């Protein structure tokens, strides 16, 4: 049904009649009026959520061996708009979340530079600042998709929740590097964190000079401890693991470090057995958050909703299919559509109670799109667990329950996939 | 100094030398390395701020007679970017913050409609949604400016902190009204809240049909209780008082209600003694947050930073003056510059230690700008306390302290101003 026709029908009061078909009209109950009879709570210095929202939490897999190393998921189907609230931004760490005193905090830049420098947090905040909305996504996002057969109880959260979107403020790394005076032979940066893992990655100098931020704020306030308080790297569009948190040091050098955190993990084993050492740019992703796995809907009008993003550039289009990819309908993108940030997509839909499978597919400005599951595994094989960005399908059953709509892979072994026997976020 | 020259100097390492002039180089202390020796905190379901950020709070005036009716201020000079974090969004209520159970929540639309309707929260979320970033500003923002002589200890927070900026998600009120079927003779809506004040205002139907949202989410999660949980009106660009929180009922009618909350307050007494019954649209505002009152700066480079917004439309320009309005320099606006939302402005500046007064002035797409203090009082007089949007001046003293740079008004009486002897937010 096109949007204009939909609104004309709206004018005739069709929506609600169909939307509420079968629901008993119980306008209100005794509790509805109580708040008007009670003096409310006083002004407060820092607000908290309503107690009625306490079940909206990050998902932590019960299968994790420890909570001191691992990840948890942003509850995507419970969020609105595009901003991920600070308390629900996904987490990923390797030795717990350090507690850093901002007064003792220092950032050292040294190595192939004219002058090694030490910055306090106050110094960093004195530099010209930049604020941009960027998604951050774990390279391991979507790894549930490696399972064969697919997990029937999958939710949008467990499918793609190792991703979040926030407004980041910081100083361009390029300015700090110019301060230090990068020598002409330098090619790589080795950022290091001050967590107990002293987490380390290798970052090409080109990307650093382009748009990397040394960030100290997240949605207007200081970074949350689990997002790297007080300072982290934000590397727009690139895998989360390279966006070093609790940043304390950057070594300027001419070779990558081949650090533990980029060799024991985050390399990609392809179908042909070859290995990609570095896969930095996050490919296009989309996830329908409503209706999605674990939810239950009634016949009538629904606005299909979801999120899409790509590390290659701006999202240009998101399509939804109701026939497993034979035909596609274009969704609306909520403005402003920002580059390297999440976008909210929406599509009006009328469900009459038939069994149907919903697919979503995002396109970016470079012409990239998401593969189907079959296409993905032909290229990547199943000895890997990163960079899964295949289309996520949701199946709506006639009773309204929504379950994982992915189909089993033929010709592939059963099991969780996932290559190395390291920690697995969610099985 | 223009931006290009500034960056060339940067390349020569000039910045840091001048920025750190006089500071003892104490690179780090014992505490700097501790976090690498301690296993960090585990994954958590809902994140909180670092304990080191606990002093970043809303400002509550010690002069309030009660905290169950009044307002508190967003700590503007402690925020970054444009998003106001949910815990720090300014508050305003008249009988405390009600606690509303979303299961019992109902929104009634009745009066001059074809069919009166009752919506649950679930119903509202089924409708097509819209997400937009909008500022909300109290009509009483800036009222410290009515004081004569000016308060020397004014801060950016106390000057313009009854304003905040967030991404709001909700259903267009127009859709709900179409569902109910508005009768042709209707002209006004009377929204009512379910707080103990049963706070009520009158809203013209035209504006309701244009862009008013019945909102249920704030920066991705449910509204905070103090911002109206579970449902509020968002009336883009208009005074905060009309954006009824804890919305429970909308009466569709043909006359304004002339309710208590728009007659005992929020009418504007002009200099000529006449009274504006309704002043809905918020005029352009800007506030330099750094350097601002209560801060202390050192000679060297500073990025002057601030926020600007207007209820008339998009901000087109923000200017800064260093000579009390004789000449102006144009600041950079951080993209994306969204309509009826706050914008962050920035200007590189080199302070050599001279006494100087900083002014900022915002222009919107309709050609409106801020008046000087003198211009403002010529028009509005001092028997009022709303809609103060005159330029806020900050004076930088030679020792680096920043104080209120506003000058006393000549020919006006001394005192707080403020007309009616009602609650005053901050004296």
UniProtKB/TrEMBL annotation, chains A, B:
GO MF terms held by the record: heme binding; molybdenum ion binding; molybdopterin cofactor binding; sulfite oxidase activity
Entry keyword annotation includes Protein biosynthesis: no
Cofactor: Mo-molybdopterin
Lineage top rank: taxon: Bacteria
Matching Gene3D superfamilies: 2.60.40.650, Oxidoreductase, molybdopterin-binding domain
Alphabetical list of Pfam families matching this protein: Mo-co_dimer, Oxidored_molyb
Stored PANTHER family: SULFITE OXIDASE, MITOCHONDRIAL, SULFITE REDUCTASE
Entries under NCBIfam families matching the protein: sulfite_DH_soxC
UniProt name for this protein: Molybdopterin-binding protein
